[in-house]
Amino acid sequence: RGEVECLVKLFEALVAESSSRFAAVGFDRNMFRDALHRAFGMTDDVIMDRVFRTFDRDNDSCISVVEWVEGLSIFLRGTLEERIKYCFEVYDLNGDGYISREEMFQMLKNSLLKQPSEEDPDEGIKDLVDIVLKKMASTLLDYDHDGKISFTDFEKAVRDENLLLEAFGQCLPDIK
Protein backbone atom coordinates (compact mmCIF):
# COMPACT_ATOMS: atom_id res chain seq x y z
CA ARG A 1 0.00 0.00 0.00
CA GLY A 2 2.79 2.40 0.92
CA GLU A 3 4.61 1.76 -2.37
CA VAL A 4 1.46 2.33 -4.40
CA GLU A 5 0.83 5.59 -2.55
CA CYS A 6 4.40 6.69 -3.33
CA LEU A 7 3.93 5.86 -7.02
CA VAL A 8 0.69 7.84 -7.10
CA LYS A 9 2.39 10.83 -5.43
CA LEU A 10 5.28 10.62 -7.89
CA PHE A 11 2.80 10.48 -10.76
CA GLU A 12 0.96 13.53 -9.45
CA ALA A 13 4.22 15.46 -8.96
CA LEU A 14 5.43 14.66 -12.48
CA VAL A 15 2.07 15.59 -13.99
CA ALA A 16 1.99 18.86 -11.99
CA GLU A 17 5.32 19.98 -13.49
CA SER A 18 4.16 19.21 -17.01
CA SER A 19 2.75 21.62 -19.53
CA SER A 20 1.39 18.81 -21.71
CA ARG A 21 -2.17 18.86 -23.00
CA PHE A 22 -2.55 15.42 -21.35
CA ALA A 23 -1.47 16.73 -17.92
CA ALA A 24 -5.03 16.62 -16.58
CA VAL A 25 -5.21 12.85 -17.13
CA GLY A 26 -1.64 11.61 -17.25
CA PHE A 27 1.64 11.34 -19.15
CA ASP A 28 2.11 11.80 -22.83
CA ARG A 29 4.92 9.98 -24.64
CA ASN A 30 7.49 12.74 -24.08
CA MET A 31 6.78 13.06 -20.36
CA PHE A 32 6.98 9.30 -19.98
CA ARG A 33 10.25 9.07 -21.90
CA ASP A 34 11.70 11.85 -19.77
CA ALA A 35 10.66 10.00 -16.60
CA LEU A 36 12.25 6.75 -17.88
CA HIS A 37 15.43 8.59 -18.73
CA ARG A 38 15.69 10.45 -15.42
CA ALA A 39 14.67 7.56 -13.14
CA PHE A 40 16.21 4.58 -14.95
CA GLY A 41 18.84 5.98 -17.27
CA MET A 42 17.12 4.67 -20.40
CA THR A 43 18.39 6.29 -23.59
CA ASP A 44 17.21 4.07 -26.46
CA ASP A 45 14.33 5.89 -28.16
CA VAL A 46 12.84 2.76 -29.73
CA ILE A 47 12.87 0.89 -26.41
CA MET A 48 11.35 3.84 -24.54
CA ASP A 49 8.58 4.12 -27.16
CA ARG A 50 7.89 0.40 -26.88
CA VAL A 51 7.80 0.61 -23.07
CA PHE A 52 5.32 3.50 -23.43
CA ARG A 53 3.11 1.38 -25.69
CA THR A 54 3.29 -1.53 -23.24
CA PHE A 55 2.24 0.69 -20.31
CA ASP A 56 -0.50 2.40 -22.39
CA ARG A 57 -3.01 -0.47 -22.18
CA ASP A 58 -5.97 1.42 -23.64
CA ASN A 59 -3.93 2.88 -26.54
CA ASP A 60 -5.06 6.44 -25.91
CA SER A 61 -1.50 7.86 -26.14
CA CYS A 62 -1.62 8.78 -22.47
CA ILE A 63 -0.43 6.93 -19.36
CA SER A 64 -3.09 7.20 -16.64
CA VAL A 65 -2.32 6.81 -12.95
CA VAL A 66 -3.67 3.23 -13.06
CA GLU A 67 -1.50 2.35 -16.09
CA TRP A 68 1.48 3.99 -14.33
CA VAL A 69 1.07 1.95 -11.14
CA GLU A 70 0.28 -1.32 -12.92
CA GLY A 71 3.14 -0.85 -15.40
CA LEU A 72 5.70 0.03 -12.73
CA SER A 73 4.53 -2.90 -10.63
CA ILE A 74 5.68 -5.28 -13.37
CA PHE A 75 8.63 -3.08 -14.37
CA LEU A 76 10.05 -2.93 -10.83
CA ARG A 77 8.72 -5.98 -9.00
CA GLY A 78 7.18 -8.29 -11.58
CA THR A 79 7.41 -12.04 -11.32
CA LEU A 80 9.48 -13.83 -13.94
CA GLU A 81 6.26 -14.70 -15.80
CA GLU A 82 5.12 -11.06 -15.83
CA ARG A 83 8.52 -9.82 -16.94
CA ILE A 84 8.70 -12.40 -19.75
CA LYS A 85 5.28 -11.28 -21.03
CA TYR A 86 6.26 -7.60 -20.70
CA CYS A 87 9.59 -8.01 -22.56
CA PHE A 88 7.90 -10.03 -25.30
CA GLU A 89 5.32 -7.24 -25.76
CA VAL A 90 8.09 -4.65 -25.96
CA TYR A 91 9.94 -6.64 -28.65
CA ASP A 92 6.88 -7.64 -30.71
CA LEU A 93 6.86 -4.38 -32.67
CA ASN A 94 3.81 -5.10 -34.82
CA GLY A 95 1.79 -6.94 -32.15
CA ASP A 96 1.31 -10.10 -34.22
CA GLY A 97 2.36 -12.48 -31.42
CA TYR A 98 5.81 -13.19 -32.89
CA ILE A 99 9.22 -11.57 -32.77
CA SER A 100 10.40 -11.73 -36.36
CA ARG A 101 13.92 -11.49 -37.74
CA GLU A 102 13.09 -7.95 -38.92
CA GLU A 103 11.87 -6.93 -35.45
CA MET A 104 15.04 -8.36 -33.87
CA PHE A 105 17.10 -6.43 -36.39
CA GLN A 106 15.30 -3.15 -35.56
CA MET A 107 15.69 -3.66 -31.79
CA LEU A 108 19.35 -4.62 -31.99
CA LYS A 109 20.16 -1.91 -34.53
CA ASN A 110 19.03 0.75 -32.09
CA SER A 111 20.55 -0.77 -28.96
CA LEU A 112 24.08 -1.38 -30.27
CA LEU A 113 26.72 1.28 -30.59
CA LYS A 114 27.99 1.69 -34.11
CA GLN A 115 31.74 1.64 -34.54
CA PRO A 116 32.90 4.49 -36.80
CA SER A 117 35.39 2.22 -38.54
CA GLU A 118 32.75 -0.27 -39.66
CA GLU A 119 31.96 -0.10 -43.35
CA ASP A 120 28.49 -1.60 -42.96
CA PRO A 121 27.37 -1.79 -39.33
CA ASP A 122 24.10 -3.43 -40.44
CA GLU A 123 26.08 -6.54 -41.44
CA GLY A 124 27.30 -6.92 -37.85
CA ILE A 125 23.75 -6.56 -36.58
CA LYS A 126 22.51 -9.18 -39.07
CA ASP A 127 25.24 -11.52 -37.80
CA LEU A 128 24.13 -10.85 -34.22
CA VAL A 129 20.49 -11.57 -35.11
CA ASP A 130 21.64 -14.88 -36.64
CA ILE A 131 23.54 -15.72 -33.44
CA VAL A 132 20.52 -14.87 -31.27
CA LEU A 133 18.23 -16.94 -33.51
CA LYS A 134 20.63 -19.89 -33.35
CA LYS A 135 20.79 -19.61 -29.57
CA MET A 136 17.03 -19.34 -29.35
CA ALA A 137 16.57 -22.21 -31.81
CA SER A 138 18.92 -24.48 -29.88
CA THR A 139 17.07 -23.64 -26.68
CA LEU A 140 13.63 -23.71 -28.29
CA LEU A 141 13.48 -26.73 -30.51
CA ASP A 142 12.51 -24.40 -33.35
CA TYR A 143 11.82 -27.07 -35.96
CA ASP A 144 10.47 -24.81 -38.68
CA HIS A 145 13.41 -22.35 -38.60
CA ASP A 146 11.09 -19.61 -39.84
CA GLY A 147 13.02 -16.79 -38.18
CA LYS A 148 10.12 -15.99 -35.85
CA ILE A 149 9.87 -16.47 -32.11
CA SER A 150 6.44 -17.08 -30.58
CA PHE A 151 5.63 -16.14 -26.99
CA THR A 152 5.81 -19.80 -25.98
CA ASP A 153 9.25 -20.14 -27.59
CA PHE A 154 10.45 -16.92 -25.96
CA GLU A 155 9.18 -18.01 -22.55
CA LYS A 156 10.87 -21.40 -22.79
CA ALA A 157 14.16 -19.86 -23.94
CA VAL A 158 14.16 -17.31 -21.09
CA ARG A 159 13.36 -19.98 -18.50
CA ASP A 160 16.32 -22.01 -19.80
CA GLU A 161 18.62 -18.96 -20.04
CA ASN A 162 17.54 -15.88 -18.02
CA LEU A 163 20.01 -13.61 -19.86
CA LEU A 164 17.77 -13.90 -22.93
CA LEU A 165 15.08 -11.87 -21.14
CA GLU A 166 16.63 -8.70 -22.54
CA ALA A 167 18.19 -10.22 -25.65
CA PHE A 168 16.93 -7.43 -27.92
CA GLY A 169 17.55 -4.38 -25.74
CA GLN A 170 17.33 -3.21 -22.15
CA CYS A 171 13.69 -2.65 -21.32
CA LEU A 172 13.86 -3.37 -17.59
CA PRO A 173 15.64 -1.32 -14.93
CA ASP A 174 18.95 -2.58 -13.56
CA ILE A 175 19.28 -3.72 -9.95
CA LYS A 176 20.01 -0.27 -8.52
Description:
There is one protein chain. By secondary structure, the chain is mainly alpha-helical. The chain is built from 8 helices and 2 strands. The longest helix has 20 residues, at 121-140. The protein has helices at 2-16, 29-40, 45-55, 65-77, 80-91, 101-111, 121-140, 151-160, and strands at 98-100, 148-150. It folds into 2 domains: 1-77, EF-hand (Recoverin, domain 1); 96-175, no CATH class.
Spatial strand order of the main sheet: 1-2
What fraction strand? under 5%
Which whole number gives the mean pLDDT?
A: 82
Largest sheet: 2 strands, antiparallel
In DSSP terms (H or I, runs of 4 or more residues), the helix count works out at: 8
Low-confidence stretches: none
Round the Cα radius of gyration to an integer and report it: 17 Å
What separation lies between the terminal Cα atoms? Answer: 22 Å
Provide the domain count.
Answer: 2
β-strand number: 2
Secondary-structure class: mainly alpha
What's the order of the H and E elements? HHHHHEHHEH
Morphology call: globular
Helical amount among residues, as a percent range? 55-70%
